[in-house]
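COURSE: Structural Biology Practicum
ASSIGNMENT: Worksheet 4, Part C
STUDENT ID: 0417
INSTRUCTIONS: Below are two proteins. For each, the amino acid sequence is given first, followed by its structure token string. Answer the questions at the end about the second protein only.

PROTEIN I
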Amino acid sequence: MFKFLPYVLAGFLISMLLIFGLRQKQEEVLQNSYRPPVEQSLSDFTFKTLDGRELRLSELHGKVVLVNFWATWCPPCKEEMPIFEREYKRCKDKGFEILAVNMDSSESNLQKFLKENRYSFSIVRPSKDLEKELKLMGFPTSYLLDREGNIYRIRLGVYRELEEDLKKLLGC
């Protein structure tokens, strides 16, 4: 009877480790992803496009907008860019827009990065009012806004659940 006890205990231990690992992963996603309990919006920030134009966030009212703060030196930022490209191509015709706000201090780093990586969504730079008002906890940080301009989700880290959120907001 006791000769099977080590196998039973080993099986129990492995099961507990698997359950703990899956639960830890779920908690990590929940800690880094936040849906405001009440309607909130971002200020009507102004961004600079790469060709020098000014773009106000309010110009995109009526669209679902992802405002993503990133830097070229940030590995998680680079990891999520292909996700954004795929989702942008899939949902842009349904009213989805991305403003990828590059926070690099060096314009040359950004230009080098963009030469090596082509994206069809908008890469913009922050204006001075945005840098003063918005306090970011790290990179990447994303704000997904619904069609009314309300914050649907705040995501710290790689935004892997973007496809799921766009299905809810746009049906695409």
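PROTEIN II
(use this one for the questions)
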Amino acid sequence: MSAINLNVNGTPRSVEVDDMTVLLDALRDGTGVRSAREGCGVGACGACTVLVEGRSVSSCLANAKRYENCAITTADGLPADDVIVAAFVDSNAMQCGYCIPGFVLMTTELLAQNPHPTDEEITEHLEGNICRCGTYLEIRAAVHEAARRKSA
């Protein structure tokens, strides 16, 4: 085991890891982050999504040591008045909520790259995220609403 420094939601944290520790475990066990969740364990569902330097990463696959001193954002670190979170809530884009932190972070990434995405662009960008409750129409509406609010 060795200590690495992770910058999580703007706060430097020292976390004990070994050579095989994945970023998801380092975040959950070492920093108390709860919004990044294990869904499938193979990077196919999006529940573990975090943003590293603004880019989405499947934290269940990522070796924690690779992200030492990088700026990591989780849904826990979003401001209470985050426009995207509010759009998801107002659009009823969740049932159980398990997948929503990953969708919110993917939407954050998408809107940073493309402030006015089409339905097809939204679908393509979010295709790696799975909602077992099937609220895809509401999620797409939330993305459009977030884009509208951010441009207003």
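ANSWER KEY EXCERPT:
Q1: The CA atoms of residues 40 and 82 lie 27 Å apart.
Q2: The beta strands are 2-8, 11-17, 49-52, 55-58, 71-73.
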